[in-house]
Specification:
Blueprint: H1 2-21, H2 30-33, H3 38-48, H4 61-76, E1 80-81, E2 88-105, E3 108-110, E4 116-118, E5 126-135, E6 141-142, E7 145-146, E8 157-160, H5 181-191, E9 195-199, E10 214-215, E11 226-230, H6 232-239, H7 242-250, E12 258-284, E13 289-299, E14 304-306, E15 309-311, H8 314-336, E16 343-350, H9 353-356, H10 358-365, E17 374-380, E18 398-402, H11 411-423, E19 426-428, H12 446-450, E20 456-460, H13 480-499
Parallel strand pairs: 5-8, 8-9, 9-11, 13-16, 13-17, 17-20, 18-19
Antiparallel strand pairs: 1-12, 2-3, 2-10, 2-12, 4-11, 5-12, 6-7, 12-16, 14-15, 18-20
Helix pairs in contact: 3-8, 3-13, 8-13, 11-13
Length: 511
């Protein structure tokens, strides 16, 4: 009897081992991709990009309503909270409410907007009284050009001409180039100036009615000098009769600096509000590779309300947001039916993208999953319409793909294989060209994952000239069948990467 019992135990063990060795039948992802429907995408988008959300500007009530809607959806489909037991990851936001300002020259007060405007973006609470002002020409510092040469401006106010002489080309183009306002302020700070006065154009100017500057970096190692853009007449009151000559000469050549004797008061006040915003995170737990991760992301914030008009942001990036909601539901359904992914899949909707990729930057610096164990980030920012620069005769069954060849040699083949097998979209690599002047690779949330070494793909529909960042980016203009097809492509790619045997190789250095 004992021998028979031992024999039976051995037979059970053999059959059990054979069953374990037998491969499970592959799951057909089409079943779950089919749950990403035009009706569901439309239903979500008319809410996310509806009037109640007030344009979803970061750190506003509209953004908080959108976050609550996304969180409730994640809860309803059974996702687990992605931030240590909660669905939202908060981060600090600061907002300046401008107060008063003064520009007084030799006892004469000048009027804001008529004679000058303070540069509210970088100015701090300060009042300076200067017995002299240093004229520094155009204030250019670039390679062999240094308009500060021979001048001591430490702790002083500097006055400078707008722009640059004809033919000058900055070594670094863009808003931080040496001939830009930002570049000139940075150069003045580096030279030790306490205040900057830039002669501008277009006065009198219309009063700015925005709610104040928002930013994340309240504490800085170095502060910028307070800056005032002034009219030609205001600048002349400081420089005297020589000003007209300097303006004329400066159009075509460098103008020598000079120390000006003038009594100048520059004053600026503001109130800083401490606010917050949040990313919304939920995940589907993996099976045998649960400690490895795939991230699917989009930003849910937009431009808010300006001059009484709502900037709905249906395509930018309501389309990406609702695609994440639908993909999360598809993965959650598979999990509930016992066919979930091998790796854990984190679904992240971030805010602050329109302010400067704030939410994704905060997540990348305070990750709730290990970046070294994250196989990839699939990021979506605008996939609901067609590029206005594509001609009607062009193939409109497309999506722009960016970054799939940047960090892993394995990523692009997977992306193309999934598209060929399931969706047959035209994968357009126009914006993936390193020489593309739009530099799209650096302009959405995927970049904050890429800079941490995580391979990425960015999905994008292109340039919407008429409606981009306008109140006219509304849900009724979305091509929902095309949106569904593009979202399904991302889903299939995510499915493959969440279930393949190995994480993606990281065999290309970040450029």
């Amino acid at each position: 009897m004992k021998r028979i019992f031992v024999f039976l135990l051995l037979m059970v063990s053999v059959f059990s081992t054979q069953a374990q060795k037998k491969k499970a039948k592959p799951v057909d992802p089409k079943v779950y991709a089919s749950t990403i429907t035009t009706d569901d995408l439309s239903k979500h988008l008319y809410i996310v990009a509806g009037a109640e959300m007030q344009g979803r500007e970061t750190a506003t009530e509209g953004q908080r309503k959108a976050a609550a809607y996304i969180e409730e959806h994640f809860k309803s489909i059974g996702l687990k909270p992605g931030n240590n037991g909660t669905f939202q990851q908060s981060f600090p936001v600061y907002k300046d409410e401008p107060g008063s300002s003064e520009v007084v020259v030799n006892g004469k007060s000048f009027a804001a907007n008529t004679d000058y405007i303070p540069f509210t973006q970088w100015n701090n609470n300060a009042t300076g009284y200067y017995a002299e002002v240093v004229f520094v020409g155009h204030g250019l510092v670039d390679k062999e050009v240094d308009d500060y040469s021979g001048l001591n401006v430490t702790g002083k106010a500097v006055l400078l001409l707008d722009g640059a002489p004809t033919g000058f080309k900055p070594s670094t183009p863009g808003f931080r180039g040496s001939n830009s306002m930002y570049g000139k302020i940075i150069n003045a700070r580096n030279k030790g100036a306490a205040a900057v006065i830039i002669a501008g154009t277009g006065f009198p100017r219309k009063a700015v009615t925005n709610g104040g500057n928002m930013y994340m970096n309240l504490y800085k190692a170095e502060q910028y000098p307070n800056t005032f853009i002034v009219s030609d007449a205001t600048a002349k009151s400081i420089a005297g009769e020589a000003w007209d000559q300097w303006v004329t000469a400066g159009k075509s050549a460098k103008v020598a600096g000079s120390v000006l004797k003038a009594s100048v008061k520059l004053s600026y006040t503001k109130k800083t509000l401490e606010l917050s915003s949040s990313n919304v995170l939920g995940y589907v737990e993996g099976s045998d590779k649960a400690d490895e991760w795939l991230i699917v992301s989009a930003h849910y914030d937009h431009e808010g309300v300006k001059n009484g008009k709502i900037y709905y942001g249906a395509d930018d990036d309501g389309s990406g947001t609702v695609s994440v909601l639908e993909m999360a539901e598809a993965f959650a359904k598979a999990k509930a039916e016992g066919k979930g992914p091998r790796r854990s899949v984190m679904f992240i909707t971030v805010s602050g993208e329109e302010k400067g990729l704030w939410g994704s930057e905060y997540f990348s610096e305070h990750p709730t999953v290990p970046m070294e164990k994250t196989t990839a980030d699939l990021n979506i920012d605008m996939i609901g319409r067609t590029d206005t620069e594509r001609k009607s005769a062009d193939n409109l069954n497309y999506v722009y793909v960016v970054g799939d060849d940047k960090l892993s040699t394995e990523l692009k083949p997977i992306s193309e294989a999934m598209n060929n097998k399931y969706t047959q979209l035209v994968l357009d690599y126009k914006f993936n060209d390193p020489k593309d002047p739009n530099r799209i690779y650096y302009r959405s949330d995927h970049f904050n994952f890429a800079r941490k070494g995580v391979p990425i793909i960015f999905y994008y529909d292109g340039m919407l000239k008429a409606d981009y960042h306008q109140p006219t980016d509304t849900p009724d203009k979305i091509n929902y069948p095309l949106l569904a097809k593009r979202a399904q492509l991302v889903f299939y790619t995510a499915w493959e990467m969440a279930n393949r045997e190995e994480m993606l190789k990281r065999d290309i250095p970040l450029n």
